[in-house]
Specification:
This protein has 85 residues and is of the alpha+beta class. The protein has one domain: Aminopeptidase (3-Layer(aba) Sandwich). Helix content is 26%, strand content 36%. The chain is built from 2 helices and 5 strands; from the N terminus they run ββαβαββ. Strand 1 and strand 2 form a beta hairpin. The mean pLDDT is 96.
């Protein structure tokens, strides 16, 4: 297994890829499949996770809103990304 994802109604809830498979195109291939087959068009990213933000931006997502707290009310700023292509 190289990783796993979880999604619900157009929203990617989680995407984990083993570090040894990063930078080889697997993540992009998986994400594009989810976009095409599952209609994924939204994802949330922690503000400090610059690598994730760059990955999603490379794949056509852009920030459309922000939150000062995460879904559990903790003080972790969140970027809400939306597919724009």
């Amino acid at each position: 297994m190289i990783g796993f994802t979880g999604h619900a109604v157009k929203r990617l809830e989680m995407f984990f890829l083993s570090p040894r498979f990063r930078g080889k195109g697997y993540g992009t291939a998986i994400l594009q499949e989810l976009i095409e087959k599952e209609g994924i068009s939204f994802v949330d990213v922690n503000l400090q996770n610059e690598a994730a933000r760059k990955f999603y931006e490379k794949n056509g997502f852009r920030v459309h809103a922000t939150s000062e707290k995460d879904g559990q009310g903790r003080p972790y700023p969140i970027l809400h990304l939306k597919l724009t292509k």
